[in-house]
Amino acid sequence: MARLTTTSTAPKNVFFSPFFLVVGLSITITLLLFLWRPLNLDRTTYLPLTPQAETTVIGKVRVEIIDDKAKKNTSSSVITDDSVEKEELEEIVDEKENSIEYTVTRGDTLHDILLRYNVNYNDIYQLTNQFKQLANLRIGQQISWTMDDNHNLQTFSWVISSNNIRLYERSGNRFIESTETAEAVSQNVTIQGEIKSSFTIDARKSGLTNREIDTITKTLQWQLDFRKLQPGDKFVVLLSREMHGKYSTNSQILGVRIKNSSKDYYAILADDGSYYDINGMSLSQSFLRYPLSRQAPVSSPFNPKRLHPVTGAIAPHNGVDFAVSRGTTVLAVGDGEVVIAKYSESAGYYIAIRHGRQYLTKYMHLDKLLVKTGQQIKRGDKIALSGNTGRSTGPHLHFELHINGRPVNPLKAKLPISEGLTGKSKSVFVEKVKSIKPQLTL
Ligand SMILES: [Zn+2]
Predict the structure, then answer these.
(1) CA of 300 to the centre of ligand 1 (A)
(2) Which pLDDT does position 20 carry in this prediction?
(3) CA 307 to centroid of ligand 1, rounded, Å
(4) Residue from 377, 359, 367, 302 nearest 329 by CA
(5) % the chain with pLDDT above 70
(6) What's the gap between Cα 311 and its chain centre?
(7) How much distance in Å is there from the Cα of 81 to the middle of ligand 1?
(8) Mind spelling out the 3-state secondary structure of 116-174?
(9) Is 312 left (phi over 0), alpha (psi -120 to 50) or beta?
(10) Are 159 and 103 in contact, with CB atoms under 8 Å apart?
């Protein structure tokens, strides 16, 4: 704000100076950009297709204008802190993949799913236009696809039911549909492997699918850091697979064992559908609901459909704002690693923490950072003092929770609660371990 008031103290002829012309021109361009933006579909702003686009100088000019307008706005929330360092975080969350398996969830459309994974837009258009039935995806259905290095879609498969699988294969600029209706055969499989480069790569080489690998890394995410596995470390997986010819439509991991130089890690499936170690202890890590030692009023709720006060376009508020005075202690909500701890013009002093593989939390507008990038922290650790830094209109803590790279409402999200098995379910589990463990030999 200080930089804006300096112009008013300058002598009158400053309005004719080249400096003012440049500023005026920037403001004009920026206003034009505002008018133009709402015409675009909001979702395009999520796409990491052109990661540089959001960090150009134009972005900065825009930001100053928003700041100015924000003064007149009575809302106590922060306007643009959600766009902060997007590329940086996406790099952490996303791994480059040419072969993707995906389970359809609520609100998904094929168009959106494929766009989110950077599939070539022309291919998405071609596929969905050629096969209108692809608009009928159902929640829980399994789809998978492969792309070449230029993100051109090569194959796409859609499991409608266990004996009805649609396959779409590229042929020139079009896709050809075929159907697989073989009867399902269920079989138990043991897959063994050794780390040569990384768990994901070697597990895939050994014959595990991306979805199976994903289940394993999520299940054991609190026990070990998969990136720290060394060449020579071993793994073995027992799974039950439903096979249709060469396609597996359904698989369930019954047991996993990963052995590094010092320790054995087990995950065994219990009847409740969760995984436990061989002693029946939960493998998940619990979270605190609030990043504060005592509850504070919410001054601006999580709102993915919030309308921008200036443009009227959708400008999601990807977190919750807690009204707290400057200097309030901020706590890490779970065990994890600090992946960002620095100053940014929009978020002020801010912190991002990765918790295992699926979860990421962000804390913004802090007054003082108490941790450093790369630091391992425990749930409840003091990580910062809250403040009013960056583009903030008053002291508050902006807190975000991301699950699988998507912001969710931290006050309502389902969070893992760590519990062990007891009583009858424990004794059933012990019997299960007796039959599964001997099959996990290395
Ligand atoms: Zn906020």
Answers:
(1) 7
(2) 59
(3) 14
(4) 367
(5) 75
(6) 27
(7) 7
(8) HCCCCHHHHHHHHHHCHHHHHCCCCCEEEEEECCCCCEEEEEEEEECCEEEEEEEECCE
(9) left
(10) no
CA of 298 to the centre of ligand 1 (A): 10
Tell me, in angstroms, the distance from the centre of ligand 1 to residue 366's CA.
12
Q: How far is the CA of 357 from the centre of ligand 1 (A)?
A: 24
Contact 402, 353 (CB under 8 A): no
- Both tokens of 157, joined, read 């498969």
Task: Tell me how far apart the alpha carbons of residues 154 and 148 are, in angstroms, rounded to a whole number.
Answer: 7
Count other Cβ atoms within 10 Å, centred on residue 420: 13
Instruction: Please say whether the beta carbons of 166 and 160 come within 8 A.
Output: yes
Q: What is the pLDDT of residue 132?
A: 93
Check: CB of residue 92 under 8 Å from CB of residue 227: no
Q: Tell me, what's the pLDDT at 16? A: 54
d(CA 15, CA 151): 50
User: What pLDDT shows up at residue 179?
Assistant: 86
Nearest to 210 by CA among 291, 117, 276, 299: 117
Q: How many whole angstroms from 66 Cα to the centroid of ligand 1?
A: 15
| Gap from CA of 327 to ligand 1 centroid (Å) | 17
- The rounded Å distance from CA 305 to ligand 1 centre is 14
Tokens of 75: 């809302």
Rounded to an integer, what distance in angstroms lies between the CA atom of residue 288 and that of residue 381? 11
Per-chain residues with Cβ under 5 A from ion ligand 1: 78, 321, 398
Name all contacts of 404-407 with Cβ < 8 Å and 24+ positions apart: 404/93, 404/358, 405/90, 405/93, 405/94, 405/360, 407/82, 407/302, 407/304, 407/316, 407/318, 407/319
Q: Which segments of the chain have a pLDDT < 70? A: 1-98, 244-249, 309-310, 417-419
How far apart CA 25 and CA 30 sit, in angstroms, is 8
Q: Give the Cα separation of 68 and 79 in Å (integer).
A: 11
Locate 309 and state its tokens.
Answer: 């006060």
CA of 336 to the centre of ligand 1 (A): 22
E strand or H helix at 203, and its extent? helix 199-206
